[in-house]
Design a protein that fits this description.
With about 400 residues, the chain is α+β, with helices and mostly antiparallel strands. The protein has helices at about 5-15, 20-60, 80-85, 150-160, 200, 210-215, 235-245, 255-260, 260-300, 300-310, 315-345, 345-350, 375-400, 405-410, and strands at about 65-70, 90-105, 110-120, 135, 145-150, 165-175, 180-195, 205-210, 225-230, 250-255. The chain has a six-stranded mixed barrel.
């Protein structure tokens, strides 16, 4: 179909300056529309990828890549279990934990929280909490001293700081007259404050020594073991392989299951944004179709002459498809170049233009993160090319149906 003569004529029509002003204007609008749509799509998806990665990193700063639990019971032989896990493919480290729902109070403030018992020496193997300390050190959690580290927002809600004492209230199994729950109260001294930049952790998590947590819950050991791997994206598969080394019966959950709602929401939002912004490209594609319809109407005599000289309907079809595809390809190329350049230099542009899109006084993230993925760029470019190709079909078919005798009757 696309013979050299057809392509040559199509290129001549695209580059010729003898079109009417209106046709030329619509052509340029179509080209710029495709470029703008593609560029915006690349920038927006790159920023959403960056936000997704930032959220994942912050979630995993205190959440391990995978956990092994005993269904709420204690893992008495947890040291032997960790030794058995050593040597698993790409396993960085393992550490025990014990979570307890509790109520923290310091008159007159009170707040619910998750009190997590950890081993201060082993915890850095599976989380970055030691790097997120704003006051105090993780090693300040000494066994038997009833010390606690709070998230920044949780400390703000309780109106406490390092050195203050708070009351930790946990439900304990009682033998009262009705067999109800008798709360257990214990005083803890605040020895540190951390901030990871995620409200779920900063406003509802407190850390204590594992030995203190075992006494608080009345358990002989931790309730789970947290695992960390070299590659977070391969963690689900690697965790299943590592779990085979542990005692059968332990339950395995990876980070994609623990935070499924977060990442499903981001995935849906990214898809919807891509579909909405693709409408910009669609509008430009309609303009391409309208431009070609006007060109076909304007070139009826030329089409008839080409047919008289022996060009087949398929050749005429190729002439106008070449013209439309050229507009789409140039627009897509410009959009990919501009969009990729902006996406790769978002922080630089913020600094150069002295813009603060995300005010550090309001947001935890002080600059807009951007992560450009080649798969997204290729998908956007292919989608734009396919749409522009489809837009050329109807005008090209109309041109191919032109009858020479009818077109030349009044010439």
């Amino acid at each position: 179909m696309f013979q050299p003569v057809s392509i040559f004529v199509g290129l001549r029509y695209s580059l010729a300056r003898e079109h009417s002003f209106f046709v030329s204007f619509i052509t340029w609008v179509s080209l710029l529309g495709v470029a703008l749509g593609v560029a915006i799509l690349i920038v927006v998806l790159s920023v959403m990828n960056g936000l997704g990665s930032e959220l994942r990193d912050r979630l995993l700063s205190l959440t391990a890549h995978a956990t092994l639990t005993a269904g709420g019971g204690a893992i008495v032989d947890w040291r032997r279990q960790i030794q058995a896990l050593d040597g698993a493919p790409e396993l960085v480290g393992a550490a025990p934990f014990l979570d307890t729902d509790a109520m923290l109070s310091r008159q007159p403030a009170m707040s619910g929280a998750i009190v997590r018992g950890i081993d201060p020496q082993m915890e850095p193997r599976v989380s970055t909490i030691a790097d997120e300390m704003r006051e105090g050190k993780l090693s300040d959690l000494v066994a038997g001293e009833n010390r606690i580290i709070l998230g920044r927002m949780l400390a703000y809600q309780l109106e406490v700081g390092v050195g203050d004492t708070i009351t930790v209230m946990t439900p304990g199994a009682g033998s009262g007259g009705a067999g109800g729950i008798v709360p257990e109260l214990r005083e803890f001294q605040v020895v540190g404050i951390f901030e990871v930049g995620l409200q779920e952790h900063d406003s509802s998590l407190a850390l204590i020594n594992l030995a203190d947590a075992e006494q608080l819950r009345g358990l002989p050991g931790p309730t789970g073991i947290r695992l960390k791997f070299d590659d977070v994206l391969k963690a689900p598969e690697l965790a299943r392989a590592a779990a085979g080394r542990a005692t059968p019966g332990l339950r395995l959950r990876d980070w994609t299951q623990e935070n499924e709602a977060y990442f499903r929401a981001i995935r849906i939002e990214k898809t919807m944004m891509a579909l909405i912004l693709m409408l910009i490209v669609a509008v430009a594609v309609f303009n391409i179709a309208a431009t070609l319809v006007m060109v076909v109407s304007d070139k009826r005599t030329d089409i008839a002459i080409l047919r008289t000289l022996g060009m087949s309907p398929r050749g005429v079809l190729a002439v106008f498809m070449t013209q439309g595809v050229l507009i789409g390809w140039i627009g897509t190329a410009i959009g990919v170049a501009v969009g990729t350049a902006i996406a790769l230099h978002v922080p630089f542009l913020e600094q150069a233009l002295n813009l603060h899109i995300m005010d550090p006084d309001v947001y935890y993230i002080s600059s807009v993160p951007s992560e450009t993925r080649s798969s997204d760029v290729v998908s956007i470019a292919l989608a734009a090319l396919v749409l522009t190709f489809v837009a050329t079909i109807y005008p090209a078919l109309q041109a191919a149906k032109t009858q020479p005798a009818e077109a030349l009757r009044y010439e």
